[in-house]
Amino acid sequence: MGKILKNLKNMRHTLYKVCDAAHYPMPKWAASLLRTGNGVPAPNVLAVETYDGSGQAVHPSVAEFRGKTFLALTPYPYGKEFYENPSLYCLEGEAWIPVAAMAPVVRAKTMGREHYSDPVLAAYEDQITLIYRRCDRRPEGKIDQLFWMDSGDGLHWSEPALLAEAPGNQLLSPAVDVQNRRLFCAETDPSVDSQVVYYDYRDGKLGEKHSCEVLGMEEGWFVWHMDVKRFEDGTLRGLFMLRRKHLRQIVSKLALFTWEEACWKWDRDVVWTPEEARPIQFVYKSTFAGEGRLLCSACDQKNRYYLFYKEI
């Protein structure tokens, strides 16, 4: 009875559950209708038009390239993986405009079989690169794949090419240090532990793999998602989503780290204002959006996913 009442109180989520169980995607017109009057009551929310119509999004990544600002994200209505397809936007004035043929970049074909996640943008002098993850559920087990694309202007892109493949959750949340040509990612098993690794990375090819320590992290947490950014003073900083170990439900926080002597050292936890904290059920993968600004993603108490800016 309690479960029935819970579903009745959150009918929008329940309708997504019904579509998911029937393996029938929510039509865009219906998603847009369900979105009406369904905004998250949080400060500094970033409203964005997602290809699926829901407006719910996670996995942001921001990059500046040739005078333009680009944003990659994935829709994630009520945590449904099928819609979690990387999408690319360009900032025009104060609005994020979908880049033609890149919103979405790719679409999952079969509900429950595959899904996409974790897009990351990396801007070099002469090109901008987009990397994203595909999780494929095969009879022999889950497989992670990373794909990459590049562009000389941010508007016209190469075809996706396979960058790496590994057992499930071994290529989670890629993040690129452009200056030192490294690709960081998390190897994660929520029931056990995780480690942060990096690969030598150049021109769409991964080289040697290296493990790196994460120092100063509070006991009982593991790294689930991450972003890295080289600041103007030359310091490489990390924004890590930390998750509680040995819990089925997600309990998480964001923390800032600094790269020193081939390891990540804890700097400080991200602290929310009461207004920011009120709607958050848990915080999700987030990104640097400038020297003193974050673009965060979170799930609220009604299981809606949203983006919001945070000054640090």
Write up this protein:
- The protein has 312 residues and is mainly beta.
- The chain is 10% helix and 50% strand.
- It has 4 helices and 20 strands.
- It has helices at 2-9, 11-21, 28-35, 274-277; strands spanning 57-65, 68-75, 87-92, 95-98, 114-123, 128-138, 141-151, 161-167, 172-177, 182-189, 193-202, 205-215, 221-230, 236-244, 252-260, 263-269, 280-283, 287-288, 293-300, 305-311.
- An 8-stranded mixed beta sheet has the order 9-10-11-12-16-15-14-13, with no helix packed on it.
- The longest helix is centred in the N-terminal third of the chain and has 11 residues, at 11-21.
- The protein is globular, with a radius of gyration of 19 Å.
- The chain starts with a helix and ends with a strand.
- The model has no long low-confidence stretch (mean pLDDT 93).
